[in-house]
Amino acid sequence: MLQDEVVVITGVGPGLGSKLAVRAAAEGAKVVMAARSADVMKQAEKDIAAAGGEAVGVQCDVRRPEQVAELVETAVARFGTITGLVNSAFGHPGWFDLLETPEKAVRRSMDIILFGALNVTREVVPHMKAAGRGSIVNVGTMTTRKPMRGEGGYAVAKAAMATATQFLALELGEHGIRANQAVMGWLDGPGVRFYLKFTAEARGITEQDVYDEIAARNPLGRIPTDDACAGAVLYLLSRHASEVTGAVLDVNGGEYMPA
Question: Which PANTHER family match (predicted)?
């Protein structure tokens, strides 16, 4: 699906990011991973190499333009070009009502989610223009479409990125560059497993009880796994989606169905 593509993925942690990296490589892409911590990337590099793929991890804080420039320079030096970008780096300001969320925490989320994505996109686009094609996928969240209490500070940053995605699609289309958004719902991975644990303890019920409550909200009757949801992002990166730009793909097991 991604043969001959060179894909940069930010926010490569133990959840969706690492799954994206491994699966993109399995589909034939050369993968450049970015994260502030190298631990997960090192393991992903080993897994990808063991499967016969190619990947490199670069420690990078997307808020810092000089580190972003180094990330992109590494990608081009190693693989010659960049044709795909997944902006999945994020920072969560904590589970508070919006007006009770510290302003510093909201600004940090905006700096990572919106301005960080713009930093990386700004550095990557010239190489996509030179290649004559490219695909940008911004990872969104269902809570911008179905508000969930305690997610306000996180959601406003993701909503800003959603609007940015539309403008990138409008402005970059003439260069053969597409921009789309994959809006994730609940992702059964490390983050949700932590949520199940602390919610179960707070309510005096089992983790399975909490899981079942969440799973019952969608027609598929399960919390989609981060590994399974990675496929939607890979599709948007691929040439199978050559005519798709400015689109929003909801990936949530049917919990939210847009009109």
Answer: 5-KETO-D-GLUCONATE 5-REDUCTASE, ALCOHOL DEHYDROGENASE, PUTATIVE (AFU_ORTHOLOGUE AFUA_3G03445)-RELATED
Strand 134-141 vs strand 84-87: parallel, antiparallel, or unpaired? parallel
CB 177 within 8 A of CB 134: yes
154 in active site: yes
Closest by CA to 168, choosing from 204, 202, 128, is 128
Report the chain's C-alpha Rg in angstroms. Answer: 18
**pLDDT tens-digit map of 84-99:** 999 999 999 999 999 9
Mapped onto helix, strand or coil, the DSSP state of residue 62 is coil
Closest CA to 251 of 148, 142, 165, 143: 142
Of 17, 89, 91, nearest in space to 55 by CA: 17
157 touches 109 (CB < 8 A): yes
CA distances from 78 to 56, 132, 190 (A): 8, 19, 31
CA pair distance 258, 55, nearest whole angstrom: 36
Give CA–CA dist 235/129, Å, rounded: 21
Residue 32's nearest CA partner among 69, 95, 82 is 82
Catalytic residue among 154, 195, 235, 256: 154
Tell me the C-alpha distance between 198 and 79, whole Å. Answer: 43
* Beta-ladder partners of 225: 188
Pairing of strands 30-35, 177-184: unpaired
What is the rounded distance in angstroms from the CA atom of residue 240 to the CA atom of residue 249? 14
Question: What pTM does this model have?
Answer: 0.96
